[in-house]
Write a structure and sequence with these properties.
By secondary structure, this protein is an alpha/beta fold. Helices cover about 35% and strands about 20% of the residues. The chain has two domains: about 1-115, 3-Layer(aba) Sandwich (Rossmann fold), CATH 3.40.50; about 115-250, Rossmann fold (3-Layer(aba) Sandwich). The strands form two sheets. A six-stranded parallel beta sheet has the order 3-2-1-4-5-6. The protein has a six-stranded parallel beta sheet with strand order 9-8-7-10-11-12. Strand 8 (about 170-175), helix 7 and strand 9 form a beta-alpha-beta unit. Helix 5 (about 115-135) packs across helix 6 (about 155-165). It is elongated and about 60 Å long.
């Protein structure tokens, strides 16, 4: 039976512990907000050393670190140096930076290096964005003018869902092959290489993780337009103007619990084998 240390994170980490506990894995946890939701079979450790001693791998949250200095935890401050001062044979985490890999004294695997996980996660992210639009818009999405900025995993899934609802979908991209696919799917193509919005939209969904909606763009957008930002930091809108010019909603995309737990159950044996 493999022994795993699950450190930091949020409710997703508790769900992962519950799913893996008893399925040929012995689970220890530290630096999380425990709740009645956590199985009694999971060992709740008093300190980091107790948690990582004798384990086959450490499972970190997504993101594993937001500052490249400490592990993502709401309850404890654990530095990367402190974590890797222990003899850890394997580390599994999410959004691991180049610096994280260089600091680690063991092999590291990133959840998001697995295309299957990233694609599956696009579905709950897109559904969450649509749910926000349902709540915030004074009109139905059916028949609404919707602009999706970015045609990656989330942009593709979100555009398809909006089209299925009956929205008038425009998609923003800059690569010629993406523009070609957008036209092939029957959406209106918007070239983001030199973004100039020639029509008004009821809602704009941004998936591009840089300031695509600059001051000159925001000033042309109708004050009633809803902007839902799905991109990771720094987001896609000029922070100074986003509140005053538009109805701006920041949606922090997360890997849903079901996707993470299924991924880990399927992939852990393969990860151990490859090491």
């Amino acid at each position: 039976m493999k022994s795993l240390a699950i450190i930091g994170g949020d409710l997703r980490q508790l769900a992962v512990a519950n799913e893996l506990c008893g399925k040929n894995f012995s689970i220890k946890m530290f630096a999380v907000n425990y709740s009645d939701f956590l199985s009694k079979e999971v060992a709740r450790c008093a300190n980091l050393a107790e948690c990582v001693t004798g384990v086959d791998a450490v499972i970190l949250p997504l993101p594993s670190s937001t500052d490249d200095k400490t592990i993502n935890s709401a309850t404890h401050k654990i530095t990367l140096a402190e974590l890797f001062s222990h003899n850890i044979p394997l580390c599994i985490g999410g959004k691991l930076s180049k610096y994280f890999h260089e600091t680690a004294a063991c092999p590291c695997f990133d959840y998001l290096d697995y295309e299957e996980l990233s694609v599956k996660n696009a579905v709950p992210t897109a559904e969450g964005a649509i749910e926000i639009a349902f709540k915030e818009l004074p009109v139905t999405l059916h028949g609404s003018e919707c602009l999706v900025l970015g045609f990656g995993r989330i942009g593709k899934v979100l555009s398809s869902m909006l089209h299925g609802i009956g929205a008038r979908v425009s998609c923003g991209a800059r690569r010629p092959e993406d523009i070609a696919y957008i036209n092939a799917y029957g959406y209106n193509a918007v070239n983001t290489a030199n973004l100039n919005l020639t029509r008004q939209y009821d809602v704009i969904f941004n998936t591009i993780p840089y300031k695509i909606l600059k001051e000159n763009i925001l000033k042309t957008i109708d004050a009633d337009t809803l902007i839902i930002d799905l991109a990771s930091k720094p987001g896609g809108a000029d922070f100074i103007l986003e509140v005053t010019c538009t109805n701006y909603t920041e949606f922090i995309p997360v890997i849903c619990i079901k996707v993470v737990t299924i991924f880990l159950k399927i992939s852990l044996d393969n990860i151990f084998y490859s090491c």
